Amino acid sequence: MQDLHFETIYEKYRKPIFRLCRGYVNDDDLAKDMVQETFIAVFRQLPKFRAEAAIGTWIYRIASNICLKQINQQKKLPKAEIPVSLSNDDTLHEKIEKDKMTDFLYQCISELPEIERIIISMELENVKQAEIAEILGISPGNVRIKIHRIKEKLTEKFRHYGNQI
Amino acid sequence: METRYNFEEIWKQRETHLPDRKTIQEKAQFYSKKQLWSSILLILSLLASFGTIVWVWLRFPDLHFMTKSGMLFAVSALILYIFLNFQKIKIINKINPALSNQEYLKQMKILQQKDLYMQTKGISQYYLLLSLGMAFYLFEFAERMSLFWGIFTYTITFSWILFGWFYIRPRKIRNQQKKISQVILSLEKIENEFSG
Lengths: 165, 196
Prior knowledge:
heterodimer
């Protein structure tokens, strides 16, 4: 039996949804606005939720649709500077701190095509591939292939950036 | 290829301060009320427009038929404008945010195409009604003027109408077309990603 209380839902999903939105737009304030928009929609749609799907799948579907709706705003966004590959080892060691890595990962994800951003964000949130497929409306096999490709892309970018964590 | 980076761990390090549940609920309630009020306002403005027509018709029975027709056209233009905006809000609200991404994109595209139609055809109809309104309304007054001033008044009026029709209207349509077409293109680009 799924717990459909808004309070429980909000507590459980607000951080993953923030990360999804943050990865999509790479902007803190806009991501927060999108989280609000998502949960406002969740709050208003909750009475209509028929529990045919898992509540998590349903919330991710709303959040990813709100991400896709950002088509116009995105182009106007001043995105954070892309950390370029570093020139010498000293600088490299200074830069490879956890938060820099996080910034870099979010930057890389925000540069992916829209659908790939959504897929990898959910994969990193441990959403099952079958659920991701359901959220997107594509086959699980397609999701698997896409995840593999995206991870390859990210690994390649990280190789460029440094060597390892 | 074996991944040497723990992306999941790096990903989950991102933290931020998010508003509490109560704030979200209050905002949701605020938006519902706002939406309700804007619908009420739209309906009231439509009723007011109809009321104006009825009032003029009854209050000034001696007005020339052309003057009354002019008023009718002008108010109809206003009603059309309100109606088009109302339709747009209705379509936006009809899109279910919990659809699958692919289905949602399809719905967004349909919405944009409808919007494009309304913004282009709607603008033309709006200008046509408004222009007819002005031309008809002035007739009774121009009739009382001397020939020179009558011609002068209609020359100015028609110049303005032609300027609106051939300059302002196409410009507005072009701007809307450009804006909406860009959104449609972006939507199509995302749609193509599904198969890529």
